[in-house]
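User: I'm writing a short methods note and want a consistent example. For Non-homologous end-joining DNA ligase, I'll paste the sequence; you return only the structure tokens, no commentary, since I'll be parsing the reply automatically.
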Amino acid sequence: MDLKVGRYIVGVTNQNKLLFPKAGISKIDLIEYYLAMAEHIIPYTKDRPVTMHRFPDGIGGKSFYQKEASDYFPDWLDTVKVPKEDGEIEMVMINKKASLTYLANQGCITPHIWLSKKDKIDYPDKLVFDLDPSDNDFNVVIQAAKDFRKLLEDELDLKTFIMTTGSKGLHIIVPIIRNKNFDEVREFASGVCKIIANDKPDDYTTEIRKDKRKGRLFLDYMRNSYAQTSVMPYAVRALEGAPVATPLFWKELQGKMNAQRYTLSNIQKRIENEENPWENYYKSRKSLSKPMQILEKMLNR
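Assistant:
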């Protein structure tokens, strides 16, 4: 079957293959979802290298992460060559609806995106803090997210955005002006986590080793590094029920909210009935220069 997506023809193979057998979700269902959601997704993926999490035989089969664009990918698929230790690698970007459609047909259920764009690949335009509970207590994650917001907005004068990961936790995203490199941004993110963990040492930790966390919530800043990725907003996760990584309003962090609240079956109703919680995302970027100075003073108290 061929789909005309904009100016491009995307071939769809094995359209009835069940990617989520228990939920009865087929490949064409995934493709139709990404087609419908493309206008909401592409503003956050445009010009960013993508790592594809592919499931050729559905979520019950083998999966793999793919960074390098395959030789057989069509010429119209946007790519970028990015430096790595022993040379460079050509990676896919999701700049148009047809690209999202093509990758879904390749069994890419979940795209993961870089924190930087092709034109300034060493300079991220966002911070990402990853909060995953060590158990199933999502209330701990909600409280941690609120603690991050208080520090980042009230003390450091930055703007924060919140998103369920569709898996276990939450991502806090901070849009920033691209004037600091990854090393500088990661050091800043590490300092933010240290402040929060030191304030509540019984609840939070920055300890990398799991055996030293002792049930405390790990405040993860490690995504703020070159070539690291975070899950794409509105990406489907390869879990039963097809949960979706969903941008939220901060006021929604209460009650029955959890990381898998929104799924392929209910996310589009949310989009139709709710305003965009990230409407001012790209208008909210700020420089880290002054926040870095404030944070350094806080760490040296």
